Amino acid sequence: MGTVVTATLPIPMIVITGSSCAGKTSVIDILRENLSDKVEFVPEAASQVLAENIVPKPDILPYFSDCKEIKQSIHYEWLHYLQDSILKRIIELEHIAQQHACEHGKKLIVTDRGIVDMPAYHPKGEVGWEILTTTRVNHLTKTSALSRYHGVIVLETLAIHYPELFSNAINAERYETPEEAAGLHNKITQAWSEHSNYQMVCNLGRSLEEVGSIVESIISSALEKVS
User: Fold this and answer.
1) What's the predicted TM-score (pTM) here?
2) Number of domain units in the chain
């Protein structure tokens, strides 16, 4: 039996997301420093799952170097079950945050990525995501997944306007090129674009501090509405 996921949760949640080198971690650190008395924070599930090696990467791939189809099949299966574990962890972390927020009087939850990010990372996109949510999670559709969140803020990766500044070293678990990071940004944007409270924060001509200030203003405005 899959995990039952409710479409709405008592404490409003806002997702902050973006591709590699979007400044997501730094922006969330700014919010933690200035708004932690009113905001509960959800860490990124993917980083936890990868660090814990919950779905070990197959070490037999080199033996199939001459058989592209087998290699692709093994790699797809690994990515599929990796996303499955990440999906489960996201749901778990969000419910823990809901409990903590209620216990400590927090008015808002900021989550580092969300369920709707998943199609951007699954090798089969929306189709693969639907396979996961149909077989693993009950009552979760694209519409109900979007409705879990009060809003979403997508941060632009440096790969869009400043590919020369893009660095893969920021997250050791990822090795995207600037082109791949820009492509992932487009997939994330597409995944969230149907949300009624979708906001993109562009970094063109802006420092990371300025981007953080814009996001903090958005979160502060949301706090005023729910207080």
Assistant:
1) 0.88
2) 1
